[in-house]
Amino acid sequence: MTAGPPRTTVSAWRPSVPGIAEVFHAHFTEHAYPSHTHDTWALMILNDGAVDFACDRHRHGAAGSGTVVLLPPGVSHDGRTVTANGFRKRVLYLDTSVLPEELTGRAVDGPVFGDDLLRHRIHQLHTALGHPGDGFEAESRLAFIRERLHGHLDALRPPRTPGREANRLAAALRELLDSRLASGMSLEEAAGLLHAHPTHLIRCFKQTYGLPPHAYLTGRRIERARGFLLDGRRPADVASAVGFHDQAHLHRHFTRHVGTTPGRYAAAPRLP
């Protein structure tokens, strides 16, 4: 008899992004979670399937890819599959630097959000977290997720719109990024140095330069990598010299930007 596909698959890791305690991806077909609690917030999206769960003894359901579930720390919850095919989920466990515990009551009252933009942003963050070296992008995406979650929980005023200071802040951030091209810096550090809220800083930069700061940083690194490759330096050495995590990280971004791999770019014929 031929064995079928695995009925449970799980992957988990701890990224080097402040505020994220764990990333957890799973496919469950039969598993049922007993009632339990976490010290962290659990932010879940479904790839497919449906899940039934209780939060503080009140039952809820989530199905398909159109919903976001937020379970607060210290509150009992369980979870179980609804259909024979089970469900595939991606979860971010967020510490209280992202969302304070005092928002727990509001989350218990409504743990399921029908918010396509929030869901898309969480998906983008998971994608960034799957690539070591994209920490600056992941921090940026987490900042916007935090802001939107606060909005759902009625805890913050509406996002601040870039005003007259936008160009000044954007130019200051660009100068910082250019000065730390190889070593890099965190979004939190940049926001602290410029005395600006992270999401406001990103909005100012995008309004001024037409792209978010993590995309600008990647483009500048690719530009420098091209010069080093034409000088005859090895791709592995170039990756570390311009600030990429490793050669695979350089390869992925270089191919997307230039349309060819670093090795092929370096080996291309030089025309007079």
Number of helices: 10
H and E order: EEEEEEEEHEHHHHHHHHH
> For the residues shown, what is the average pLDDT?
91
Segments where pLDDT lies below 50 for 5+ residues? none
Condensed summary:
This protein has 272 residues and is an alpha+beta fold.
Would you write up a description of this structure?
By secondary structure, the chain is of the alpha+beta class. 43% of the residues lie in helices and 22% in strands. It has helices spanning 104-109, 116-129, 135-152, 166-179, 187-194, 198-209, 213-230, 235-242, 247-258, 262-267; strands at residues 8-13, 20-28, 32-36, 41-55, 58-63, 68-71, 77-81, 87-94, 112-113. Strands 1, 2, 3, 4, 5, 6, 7, 8 and 9 form a 9-stranded antiparallel sheet that branches. Strand 4 (41-55) and strand 5 (58-63) form a beta hairpin. Helix 4 (166-179) crosses helix 6, helix 4 packs parallel to helix 7 (213-230) and helix 8 (235-242) crosses helix 9. The longest helix is centred in the middle third of the chain and has 18 residues, at 135-152. It starts with 7 loop residues before the first strand and ends in a 5-residue tail after the last helix. The mean pLDDT is 91.
Tags for this entry?
10 helices, 272 residues, alpha+beta, globular, 43% helix, nine-stranded antiparallel β-sheet
Topology of helices and strands:
Layout: E1 8-13, E2 20-28, E3 32-36, E4 41-55, E5 58-63, E6 68-71, E7 77-81, E8 87-94, H1 104-109, E9 112-113, H2 116-129, H3 135-152, H4 166-179, H5 187-194, H6 198-209, H7 213-230, H8 235-242, H9 247-258, H10 262-267
